[in-house]
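# step 3/5: fold
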Amino acid sequence: MDFIFILIAFVCGLSIKLTGLPPLIGFLLAGFVLNYLGYESNSTLDTLASLGITLMLFTIGLKLNIRDLLKREVLLGSSLHLAIWVVLITCCFYFLMILGVGYFASMTLQTCAIIAFALSFSSTVCIVKILDESGEVKTRHGKVTIGILVMQDIFAVLFLVVAMGKVPSVWSLALLLLFFAKPIWSIVLEKAGHGELLPLTGFFIAIGGYQLFELVGIKGDLGALIIGMLIAGHSKSSELSKALMSFKDLFLIGFFLSIGFTALPDLNIMLTALALCFLLPIKFGLFFSIFTRLRLRARTSYLSSLVLGNYSEFGLIVVALLVNMNLLDKNWLVILAIAVSISFLFTSLMYKNSHNQYTKVKSGLKRFEHPNRLKEDVYSHPLNARVLIIGMGRVGKGAYGALNNVLYNEVWGMDADPIRIAKLRKSGMQVMVGDGEDADFWENFDLSHTEIVMLAVPSVEDISNITQQLRSANYSGTVASIARYEDEIELLQKAGADKVFNFFTEAGTGFAEESLQMLAMSQK
């Protein structure tokens, strides 16, 4: 890849970062800048883009539970949205076709329906990256969202089978044997150790899964995701995901750059792409209506719908197929590329302050909630929680262990990941499932006996949001948090944290010991 690619990507990414927006928007912009300067995509960039997507889906699979995909809100939610959206948007496009509006005039009823189908999908790459960076993959809304994305991937495979006649090989049935190969993966991961061989093992498994599914005529990206899910329960799955994180983020830059190389737009193309983007609020509203009718809470429905409110790169594949079959004008490929890029920008901007947005509008949104809650949405509350630790990862568990030796049953831990909580309960720890950024959760939580809340979550944005939710719930006790970098300390203090500990210089035990000192001082 030419150095100019790296230079433009760095300049655009840094410039956008300085404005407070996600760098991926800058990488999208860099692709169009390079295209404008006369550069073309090459095999190296395409390979990086493909590797980035494969690694991303594999690492997400490492965090998923197959049972989450079989839930009613995922199966019915994805199916109902697809059916209603396709009918509704097809009618809109057909009406524009009859009126002879712009590029719609050359369409047929068939192409109207296929493009509506393509626009029903949400971007796996964009959404998973946003959820991963905000640490919300394992939250309730994160799991619902990823479940919907996986179902959409399955619909995509079925479409390609019908449209391209790409029927999976009879050998695809042999993929079921992968469920019985889990002991082999366990041995391989254990023998890989903790050094440089571990990320190489991740590359081997992810790319191997991709190639294996491709060999039998099934979408390779889906294979990487499924292979990740099969080894998700292994004790080293979290370590493997972290080992691949930097590679994944670097390679994904290639994907975002490649979108800009599709083509350069003119005024008519831009106007058509913008018109498609005006449909995004409909997509959001449809998801929200379906989720609330399926008894999801207003907050879960709002956050899931908001992050799903974009278009997918899969739409480019569908349109390219129609163009090759001479069923659609080639300019539609450019239109979809622009619409997809704008939708990424829309999601990144809107989701950045999504939790604060919900707090402002929750009274109106909660009117749409179903009166009966799902089992997963009924949270228990601790008794005598003198100290509450939010985030039961490595630091949180270390702090819990040190504090429990002194305060015993007056220490509670909380995490948004129910699987992690279930494991900790089996080990005898007092823990509960809860999302610290959930305003509804804190409104129904009795904080009158809690003297210290310790925030042991990795994201500075999450810590800031949780601190704001605590103060909004009139919590007057001490808030202690961790920071990974020095420049985050001041930000967290401004957000309302009373004490901030450096993650790299003060481990969980030190975090707990200083918190005990503050607890003793509060009693004087």
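# step 4/5: annotate
The longest helix spans residues 72-99.
# step 5/5: archive (pending)
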